[in-house]
Design brief:
This protein is an all-alpha fold. Helices cover 78% and strands 1% of the residues.
Length: 398
């Protein structure tokens, strides 16, 4: 791979960050509006919204492990990455033309289908390109750039809604532009070294036997956490439920992503210093605190502080967990390992979101968030018990 550096980062790491920035501008112009579009324009129930999010995320997530395996097998990470981003762009016009919740489900599935193809190869490109001692920094930078896009996207959506009388469909159409820019960046600026025939001779198998106990235990903990990690669509619906006006929800989501973006790289660097294990445990605990907060909240004044704290959780956990996976995976199985990680967390979103929707409709909004808070706390405890001292990470035991 090309060893050229841009602003202290290897070119592929920097370019992958830019790609995610533009794609997240595209995605986050849409994402905070979709649950509102479903609930207010199409009259969809909370249970159906949970079902849509769960099916879209979980079904597409099955692709992540196969995409990772295929990336390791073919040695063609860039091709799969670009193909996945391109498919996601196709989903935008489907959303804009939707007149029933089934159309939105199709659009969400196509979008997540693309994400399922691109995520593992992209993370493997970052891991392959980054210096070994700066994995937390590299993934923190990527998450920061990704989230800068998630700040810009809702800001653009807010301005369009303000200027064009809550025209959701116009936002959906315009989101195509930054998505196309992301695909162009991949085509012209991501580089990779092709594997030799000898390197490709032995095809990686889709088996846990090639991964050590720490990796398997970590995946088990991720599965438990993900079963309680309902879609962020419920956070948006909770904001409206507590009295936040619809046109201000993109701004709250923007501020959440701003905190997420600003905290990702510093917390990634901190994870490199104090140990990723400690940071992951703190992340689970903070998630539990935030979800208890959303469950107990009885006024709109609590929404913004809780979203900001949730942004810190994201900055603390998203990049660090991926960097942790990179330390546990054999070099020749890196994309497969990322695929397994993303697939397990994604598949669990189906029961998580369905359970979250049913709890909301049958018991109340607070039940959805108390459920998430309890699973977050259990995940922290299980992580401490199962992964006491990782051989791969030089850190003091907690």
């Amino acid at each position: 791979m090309d060893n050229k550096k841009i602003f202290g980062f290897q070119k592929n790491v920097f370019t992958a960050g830019l790609v995610s920035l533009f794609m997240d501008i595209s995605s986050e112009m849409i994402y905070p509006l979709v649950p509102l579009f479903l609930a207010t324009v199409l009259g969809t129930t909370k249970t159906t919204i949970g079902l849509i999010e769960g099916i879209a995320e979980s079904t597409a997530s099955i692709l992540k492990v196969f995409s990772g395996w295929l990336s390791d097998t073919l040695g063609r990470r860039k091709l799969l990455m670009g193909f996945g981003y391109g498919i996601s762009v196709i989903s935008r016009p489907i959303t804009a033309l939707s007149s029933a919740w089934s159309h939105v489900l199709t659009a969400r599935f196509v979008d997540r289908f693309g994400k399922g193809i691109r995520t593992a190869p992209r993370d493997a490109i970052i891991a392959d390109s980054a210096d070994g001692n700066n994995l937390g920094k590299a993934f923190g930078f990527h998450r920061a750039m990704d989230t800068v896009g998630a700040v810009i996207g809702p800001a653009i959506a807010f301005l369009i809604l303000l200027l064009f009388a809550n025209n959701f469909r116009l936002v959906f159409w315009l989101s195509i532009i930054p998505g196309l820019i992301a695909v162009i960046l991949i085509i012209f600026f991501i580089t990779e070294k092709r594997k030799s025939r000898d390197e490709l001779a032995k095809l990686p198998k889709l088996s846990f036997k090639d991964f050590n106990g720490d990796f398997r235990h970590f995946i088990f903990v991720v599965a438990l956490f993900s079963i309680g990690n309902t879609s962020d669509a419920f956070l948006i619906l909770r904001a409206e439920n507590l009295g936040v006006q619809k046109e201000y929800i993109p701004i709250i989501y923007l501020l959440f992503n701003l905190v997420y973006s600003l905290s990702s790289m510093p917390l990634g660097i901190l994870a490199d210093k104090i140990g990723m294990r400690k940071m992951i445990i703190l992340g689970f605990v903070l998630y539990s605190v935030v979800y208890f907060g959303f469950g107990l909240a009885d006024s709109a004044i609590y929404v913004l502080p809780l979203f900001c704290i949730y942004g810190i959780f994201k900055g603390m956990s998203e990049g660090t967990q991926r960097a942790y996976v990179a330390t546990l995976a054999p070099p020749e199985r890196k994309a497969t390992a990322f695929g397994v990680y993303h697939t397990v967390s994604g598949i669990a979103l189906l029961p998580a979101s369905i359970i979250g929707g049913i709890l909301w409709d049958k018991i109340g909004a607070d039940a959805t968030f108390f459920y998430g808070a309890i699973t977050g706390l259990l995940s922290a405890i299980l992580f401490i018990v199962l992964i006491r001292n990782s051989r791969h990470l030089p850190e003091k035991s907690i």
